[in-house]
Amino acid sequence: MKIESKRNYTKEYSIENKNFAKKKRFAVLRIISFSAIIVVIVMAILIGILSLVRFQQSKVSIKTIQEAWKKYDYQTVYELSKIYLQDKPFNNTALTYYSYACFYLSQEQTDTLQAQTYLDDSIIKLRIALYDANSKLVPQLQYMLGRAYFYKDTIATHYYADLAVKYLLSAKNNGYVADDIAEYLGLSYASLGMTMESISAFTEALLVRESDSLLLAIAEQYVNAKQYSAAEQYLFRIIKNSENDEIIIKSELLLGNIYIEKEEYDLAIKEFENVLKKNENSADANYGIGVIYEKQGNLVKARAQWRKALKIQVNHPGALQKMANF
Q1: Cα separation of 144 and 138, whole Å?
Q2: What angle do CA 117, 122, 126 make, to 5 degrees?
Q3: Is the Cβ–Cβ distance between 224 and 261 less than 8 Å?
């Protein structure tokens, strides 16, 4: 009985092992089949994507890009050029259209980060395009690159004004003509603290187009150079002829500060009071009047004016510093 029982146990164990082996092989086959199906699906998707990309590329040509450009449709130019460059990454014409579209799209953005992303892309593609550009196109590319660096300088944490000057000057020296080159140069020089170069560029810009903002920019640079009489002449023109209250207020504040430097305090107070008539919440005007009282030795009135300035603008740098010192 014991021998028969042992044989039955061995037989059952053998059957179980065979069943387990069959199940294991079946599971492995299922895994292999499932994996093969997944591979086939993935390959089908990749082939579909590749086919779609090739289909899109077949529809995109320099002509279609140019047609969108003529309509000032920069978003479409951007998208078509991007597709075209996937197949021909160094095509100079496509690079040029793509970089220009990026630049103009950056100007439409209200999100600074998005604007900077477009500008960075524009700059990269412009620099690539410059390597193999037709000699007639080089000055225009340099001009666009200078503009891109100028606007990048206005929104970035690092300074790019030197590169703006470099490429704008190259464009100008290579014969490119644009009404705004001198003004861009003036603003870039100002950002670099190159006062006399800025004045020269702004003066050249005035010959092309006179504006209140340009006159004010020149006056500010003359103040930096401590050429107060020259600055006054531009400020008088603005105050007399401008219809822009914001520009007039800035001019009167600057004129008031000039009179403080010249120790003409009565004239300075008059300018600051003119500002307060237009804007009673001008922190700068109250600060300026406080400085005049300080110069005259009346610290009680001076501190009262600085407190007014801080009540209007809690982080006013000049008023904060004066209150800390007195």
Answers
A1: 10
A2: 155
A3: no
Q: Is 300 left (phi over 0), alpha (psi -120 to 50) or beta?
A: alpha
What's the CA gap between 232 and 226, in Å, rounded? 11
CA distances from 272 to 43, 83, 228, 278 (A): 74, 58, 17, 10
Please compute, for residue 295, the number of CA atoms within 13 A of its CA located in the half-sphere on the CB side.
17
Distances (CA, A) of 313 to 243, 245, 308, 310, 318: 26, 20, 9, 5, 11
Max CA pair span of the chain: 130
Say what angle helices 74-87 and 92-107 make with each other, to 10 degrees.
150
CA gap 206, 189 in Å, rounded: 16
Task: Please provide the DSSP assignment of 171-228 as one string.
Answer: HHHTT---TTHHHHHHHHHHHTT-HHHHHHHHHHHHHH---HHHHHHHHHHHHHTT-H
3-state class percentages of the chain: helix first, strand second, coil last, to nearest 5 = 80, 0, 20
pLDDT along the chain (326 residues), means of 10: 48 50 59 71 68 57 95 96 94 96 96 95 96 94 98 88 97 96 96 96 94 96 96 96 96 98 97 96 97 96 96 96 90
- Residue owning tokens 């891109």: 148
Residue 57 burial (C-beta neighbours within 10 Å; 0-12, 13-18, 19+): middle
Nearest to 274 by CA among 213, 311, 296, 266: 266
Whether the Cβ atoms of residue 301 and residue 265 lie closer than 8 Å to each other: no
CA distance 246 to 248: 5
pLDDT of residue 11: 47
Please report where in the chains the tokens 């499932």 appear, as a residue.
Answer: 34
CA atoms of 42 and 40, how far apart (whole Å) = 6
Cα angle 43, 49, 55; round to 5: 135
